[in-house]
Structure formats: structure tokens, C-alpha cells
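Ticket reopened. Same input as before:
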Amino acid sequence: MNPRNLLSRRNLPFAALLVLALAMPLLIGQNMYFLTILVLMLIFIIYSSAWNFLTFSGQGSLGHAAFLGLGGYASSLAAVHFGLPPLATLLLGGIFSAFIGLLIGVTCVRLREWFLAMVTFGFAVIIQTLVVSQLAPLTGGWDGYAVPKLVPSPIPGALSIEYYLVLAIAILVLVLFWFILRSRIGLALAAIRENETEARAAGINPVPFKLFAFGLSAFVSGIAGGLEIFHFGYITPEIFGIDLSFWPVIYSITGGLGTLAGPVIGTIVVTLLWDGLSIFGLTYARFIIIGVLLVLIIIFLPRGLISLPEEIARKIRGRKE
Amino acid sequence: MDGGIAVLGQVAFWGLYAGCIYILLATGLNLIFGVMKVVNFAHGEFLMLGTYVTFFFFVISGFNPYILLFLSIPILISVGVVVERLCFRPILGTGKLNEIFISLGLIYIFQNAVAMIWTDEWRSMKSPFADMTISAGPIQLPLDYIIIVAITALILVGLHIFLHRTTTGKAIRASSQNRKGAMLMGINVERMDMLTFGIGAGLAGAAGTLWAVSGQVFNPYMGSVPAIKGFAIIILGGLGSIPGAIVGGLAIGMVENFTAFFLGGSWKDAISFILLIIVLLVRPTGLFGEGQE
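Engineering reply: fixed in the latest deploy. New output:
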């Protein structure tokens, strides 16, 4: 499962996707509805890629909304109280989120599987509780507060500019992950994921690598959180919600866990399906459809949609023989 | 000072009552974990289904809601059996994360199917014994809560008898202790999986009925947090240990209610996770965990 091979084999579709992404605003013009969907899709690509990066180190999280929310609150508080431009505070949000992420990571390094799932879930609940109770004077409690937009809307074509900004960040994040996974760090992470005891025997101390993965994942999630709230123009504690913790998991599994392209494909497919279904006026039913899709993929396509061409090719070959 | 003690007694009794719901959830989760080594994060959805089944039949029949236990338990047992057969059996042994992921899918399916049928408003129902209280010294105890504690105790005793006195129960315990050994003794382990999952769901269904009867509000999304707390309880009390689930359930119920009383209601959910994190920091496999698998 060397990520380099996986990428080079799929270089062509990736390049096509990139060109399509760059041309998108020109194709759909100033259609606000579609542009909004695309911007949110890109933000979630960043977020679920960050979640997925954690799985490269053999860890996981059911409470990643904690980092999304921390990034959102830290960056918007800095923007509101110090009047800094949103683009600059994004970084602040990411750093704050990474800092808390490292603290949480320290408690998590020794835990595995469902214990880890529980503890990360728990941290999201605890942080949300803090935000609505003891920190309420600062955060406005359940009501939240208004925040400036990433690109002020009076500027002509603000949404297109925002789209390209978010696209640039998404590409930057993916390239960063790609380089890390190719490097010695990536090899160490893979060794830890496959067998922690053997990695230890090979002279790799898992703790700093796991913490690095946790911190970087939290950092990128925090930036995604900042982008999300600067897009909507307000923030409430709902950002720590269970749903927002589960979405990156669903996107990554649908696309293919443990691959760089997986969360990207998964986010695109599920978002399109999601918004497509809402055009038909389905509200609850679309959750059910996504749920059924998830169950089917786990049972029949454990490596996600990204393995679908391979699986089909294998079926066809199998029939010929 | 007499009044203070009365208030504390009252809070302790609320904790006992809340503990009953957690005990039923955690016992079910524990049974399932013991036999299948699977963790079902969608367990709370069975609790939620239990409340809606009770609510639905209460509205159309007007029976005493306690009698509806005889409906909600069998219905939830069947739901559990179907879920095990369709969703959990295919992924058994394919990795521990898959169970968590498949539960996420199930959570979405159940929550929204219920929301489609009964909408997602908060609902509640009124027990015929509401407003009736029994005074024990300075404390006023609602009659419903006493019945709920008694029913929970009855269910647990029934479960104990089933597991220790009947052949099927013994087969379930055998599969839990040693799956391969049970197989060699001619026990159909897969049928035990299905049955155990059903019983676990049935216990959650019973908890659902008790939840609804007590007059607490419910909506299609109410199940997740109690179930995850149930899971925290079995980590605290030891995976696979039913006495641990009972003690853990009571402890969490008490701690939650005292925290809500002293720190404010918003800390009610967070405190069980703080407790869990502290325990796991000291012992990464849980209080009574059996070390590395």
C-alpha cells in the first residue's frame, strides 16, 4: 500500500479533476447555488483529508469536530476582537487547534480502536460543554456570534474568489500530505500502522510520529473549520456536533480509507448525491440512502469507491477464465 | 441541614433511576461484546426505537405503558436479530474499525427512518401514575421511578436465570468464554451471535419503554449519547463483565446527577467522558480490562 504507486497509477484522472476544478467557475458562471456547494465541498475535502491522514498512523477519531470547532472559534475570535483579516487568522485557528490536538493526542497515544473512538468522541462533548457554559461570556453560548466573511461580499465575484482561495488551500494540503507520506515520516507511519510492536523493534519510537499525525490532522481540521465559518459568516457550538464528527468518516470510507484520493472522491460523490437528492425534496430519506450506501460499501467494497474500477476489472477477468 | 440531606437523597434517587437506563443499555452491549467481540455504536438507536414503539402503541391502544414492555422487548429482539444477520455477520472478523463504521451507517438509517414516520419533534407521554409520590422520610419519591427501578431489577434477575439455568443461556455463556471451544462442543455459535444481539437489543428496547414511561422527552436523535455513555460504562466496568456493567451504570447515573446538581445541567453529558478519560489515562484497557488481546 505505498501511496506513491497508488497516486501515479491514477495520475491522469487526478489531473483531469484538477483542470475541471480550475475551470468550474467559468463553466457554471455566477450561479451562486452551485458555487456555494462547490466551496463547501472543497472545505470538506480539506477536513476529511485531515481526518484520513490520522488513519495513516493507525489512529482514528470520532470527535474530529472538536478541531473543526476549535479552529473556527480561535480564528473568528481573533478576527472579531483584534480586527485581523480572516485569511491571516485561519493560520492562528489551525495552530490553536493543533496545540489542543497535541494535548489530546498525548492522552490518546496508548489507546486503540474503540477506546480511541470513545475518548475522541468524549473530548468533542467536553469542549462543546466548555464553550456553552464556562466560556459562554466569550463565545456567546448556544447563540454564537457573527463573524466577517473570508471575502467581503461587496467585492464583485466574491464567491468565485473564495472558491479559488479554498481550492488553493485544498491543493496545498493534499500536496503537503503527499510529500509527507512519501518521506521517511510516511514510511514510519505506515510501519506503525501495520504493526506497532515490530515498528518499535525496528527502532521507530511510535509516540512522536503518532503525535505528529494527530497535531497535523488537528491543524488542517482547524483551518477547515476557519474556512467554514468565514464562509457562513457566523459560528455556533453546533460546529462541535456529532454529525460534523461523522461526516469525514463517511466521506473517507466511501472513497477509500488510507488513500490520499479516497476522501477527495468520497466527498465529491457523497456531496453530489446529497445535494442531488435534496433537489428531489428528500430530507430524511437522503440520510437513509447515505446510511445504506455506507453499509453496502463496508460489506461489499471494503476499500471504497476508489477500488471500484479494479474490482470490476477483476470480476470481468474472473468471468472470462 | 435536614433539608440538605433530603435534597441529596433526592438527587441520589434520580441517579439510581438514570442508572437503571444505563444498566440496561450497558448490559446489552456487554452481552453482545462478550459473545461477538463487536461494539455496536448504534445501540442507542434500539433505545430510541423502544421509546417510539411504546409511544405508538400507547397512543393507539391506551394500555398501561408498563404492559407495553411485552411488546417493545419482542419487537426490538426481532429488529436486533435482523440487524445482526444483515449488517454485522458479513463483517465479523474483518477489523475492529468496520464495526464502528457500519454502526454509523445504521445510526443514520434508524434515526431518519423514525424521523420520516413520526417527524423529529420532541415528544413525551404521560404515565397513568404520574403525579403520584411515595414519601420515604423527608424524600418524595415518584411512584414511576420506584416501579422503574423494580422492573430493572426484575429484568436483570430474569436475565441471570436465563443465562445460568437454561441450556440456551449456558450456550451463550460458553460462546462468550471460548468461541472455538463452544463450536467444538456442537454449539451453533452463529445462532448464539444472532440471539445475543437480539437480547441486547431487547434490553435496550426495555430501557426505551422505561425512558418513555418516566415522562422524559425523546426525539429520533436521542439515542446516541446514552448509548455512547453505556459504552463508557462497560469500559469502566470491564468489557464483558455484567456485574461491572451494573456497578458502572449506577456509578455513572449517580455521578451525572450530582454533577448536574453542583456544576449545572450542561455538564451532565461531559462528566462521564471526563471520568472515562481519567480512567483510560491510568489504565488504557479499562478498570478491569484483560490487557492486550
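The two ends of chain B are 51 Å apart (CA to CA). DSSP finds eleven helices and two strands in chain B. Please confirm and we'll close it.
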